[in-house]
Amino acid sequence: MRLMMMVAVCLGICGGLAEAQSVRIKDLVEVDGVRSNDLVGYGLVVGLNGTGDGLRNAPFTEEIMQNILERLGVNVTGEQFRPRNVAAVFVTGRLPPFGRAGSQIDVTVSAIGDAKSLLGGTLIMTPLNAADGQIYAVAQGTIIAGGVEAEGDGARVVQGVPTSGVIPAGARIEREVEFDFSELSTLRLALREPDFTTAARIENVINANVGRGVAEMMDAGTVSINLQRTATGSPARAVVAIENLPVEPERRARVVVDQRSGTIVMGEDVRISRVAVSQGNLTLRIEEAPLTVQPSPFGDGETVVVPRTQAEINEEPGISLAEIPSGTSLSEVIAGLNALGVSPRDMIDILKSIKAAGALHAEFLVM
Description:
The basal body constitutes a major portion of the flagellar organelle and consists of four rings (L,P,S, and M) mounted on a central rod. The chain is α+β, with helices and mostly antiparallel strands.
């Protein structure tokens, strides 16, 4: 807990003292049209050590196995087979921008039946489709699973997720996305975090270094690049000339709170208006201690249970910040709370109350 408080204070105070740093344009924007595409396929994993699907519970596994065997010339119509070393899986991957036929990409394999583990399994040739239904890659290879499983007669231990794994460079691209980047006459830079000030700074930096009138801010999230006004006119050359230019991004004042771990992260521009804070803890404790009363020896009577309840209310000494001056930074408030020994949980509650009172001037995000 003490470490979490020190992290929160350091992030606030040290961030306020440090000067704003410039960031490359390539780290702030995405080039419109230069994007990846998601791929998905349905396949079969073989070679499992008895940890595959139970075919009664996963009939689709038997169906795909029959289809694969029939494509290989093996007739299994009407045959009864119940292997435990196969599992039906979903295979997912991502086709990178400008991915060319013959290139290889990583894929993730995940069991969809009741298989216990994919350790040691091999994915059989699986086509991967995009959203348009076309096949863009084919995956096959040995699975590297990220978990361990051990089982005995009376106990079973599982660490990680053995029903999911990856195949590095496990798929080969068979079809390219039809997109001619070189034919573009205008580029659009999409800001990852839209902001009017940051977009204006990107526009000014590009016009000052590449050419006047090359860049134009369209809105808070878009900067348009006129390729006809650049020296080369080539979209690729224009991106090379632009993406490494330094820009100082403008960030919104923001406070991020993780209630599970008690972590508080804040920006340097967070400010607090004049406000008074008082916080204390009230504890209610109730204990039941029933008393059993026995009858006299050799006498007529019954054993009686007499209820006995002890109730207690304790009010622990809290904190009282009589007044926080207007314009105080949140890092200074956190430093004061930390000096008073306030726990991260109580600190989060105080920040919530200050925000509810309208005195915390920042975006407040609770995770």
